[in-house]
Amino acid sequence: xxxxxxxxxxxxxxxxxxxxxxxxxxxxxxxxxxxxxxxxxxxxxxxxxxxxxxxxxxxxxxxxxxxxxxxxxxxxxxxxxxxxxxxxxxxxxxxxxxxxxxxxxxxxxxxxxxxxxxxxxxxxxxxxxxxxxxxxxxxxxxxxxxxxxxxxxxxxxxxxxxxxxxxxxxxxxxxxxxxxxxxxxxxxxxxxxxxxxxxxxxxxxxxxxxxxxxxxxxxxxxxxxxxxxxxxxxxxxxxxxxxxxxxxxxxxxxxxxxxxxxxxxxxxxxxxxxxxxxxxxxxxxxxxxxxxxxxxxxxxxxxxxxxxxxxxxxxxxxxxxxxxxxxxxxxxxxxxxxxxxxxxxxxxxxxxxxxxxxxxxxxxxxxxxxxxxx
Length: 374
Hints:
This protein is mainly alpha-helical. Helix content is 73%, strand content 0%. The relative contact order is 0.15.
């Protein structure tokens, strides 16, 4: 009965949704718009993002190979305890997720030596801590490539503040639910770090070449991984965000839509303006999309820029929310499941929701301060 009810409910929602869209656009035009939008996103956005992923992946691997990541980690280490209530070694997780993606924190958390520094409540909060910096380098470079420089850096500062909120809040949730976790050490069944690993001596040229190629290959994997999110989520969000074509007619071209999200956003426009300084109702589509996939959210930016819907404040807020949330609704369940604490997924999601909102608000006020000083 439960399966039948779920199937009927799912079918009913899909039929009602596409009937609503089709009644306004026309069935043929709706299907053509979906196909053309997905195709254009694949060619002009996904491959562009993949190119950025390959370059940033190569740079990130180069940083790891020649000790730049270790240097950054040592600089950040003194800030871990007072800001995040985490041991200093957690800064390595921030560096690795910033250079790659959220799951990088999971590979570290499987190592017994790494985990030996944490209490259980701190160990569980690594999910929120690592997610707040996921794909950070890609997000920042993407925003810079569209002509903004200071604004993405302000967004990075906002994401940093959002990470503090999310991590600290998650730790409080865990201690309240399981008080014993405050003193229990974190234990995992992962491999012990080999401190005296024998490495093959390679020339400088080979080290550089291997780092670039291996990092670039990782970038390709990330680029392929974002395809479903961009094509499915972004296509759907764009149909709900953009309006009809020239003359108010639907022709089946890419990026036509029914403008439902801006219509709903207009109802509470004062709230988004107060929290994030949004000046256009279309801008709300970015944080909504970032809930599921930051790559899909980034795909909205080029069209927003072309339409003149974004300004410096929006870019700062987009960067902060995009980095801090970075698709946490689609990754937190898998991440906590891999750590063995699936029952705490709802608490992690609630904490990170507040963290992302805090990141956006902080980025807005940082931009206001920057605009006032300049």
